[in-house]
Design brief:
InterPro entries: MobA-like_NTP_Trfase, Molybde_CF_guanTrfase, Nucleotide-diphossugar_trans. By secondary structure, the chain is α/β, with parallel strands linked by helices. It has 6 helices and 9 strands. It has one domain (6-207): Spore Coat Polysaccharide Biosynthesis Protein SpsA, Chain A (Alpha-Beta Complex), CATH 3.90.550.10.
Amino acid sequence: MTGPDKDGVVAGMNEDLAVVVLAGGEGRRMGGGKPLRVLDGATLLEHALARARGWSRSVAIAVREAGQAGDVDARLILDHPAIGGPAAGLASAFAFAREQGASRLLTVPCDAPRLPADLPIRLAAALTGDVGCAVAASLGRLHPTCALWRVEMAQRLPAYLEQRASLRGFAEACGMAVVDWDAGPEDDPFANVNTPEDLAALEAGHRAS
């Protein structure tokens, strides 16, 4: 896990790690179509996909419907229709990880284009003992969609969903470890895009850098 190989995949991570980009949200504050909004010449989804492919060869995009991903060249998996929110994507992501024979699953959102390159490595270091998942945090905020899960935690999800559908709550039920990041050269590496103003601010930051 020291660095990327010639294909840009982190050595030692790719064989046992599945990565799923969560892109099934409606993006109402953005006016819809969030994954396909453009930042610095590429869609938010393309930014997320490029980062994910640097971490693993087993990569998929979780969406509510295929149209949310446009014509992106990637494996699409559909959110579980009976589950609301990001937990629907997690349920489908677990199934994808099992299909790929991976023991660990990394989920990332489609709307955080600055995610740190060392995300899976630092999260993996915290996945010890009885810890079922490691969740990223930055500047005092937890980011439950940026998490590394033991795939075996999928067995606990159905019972949990009978009571709640909170991604954070499920992480806590799995024995969550929190891994903190400081602000980087471009401020918060987990800054996400929820509104047109957020997108404009990130675009301005990219131009300035």
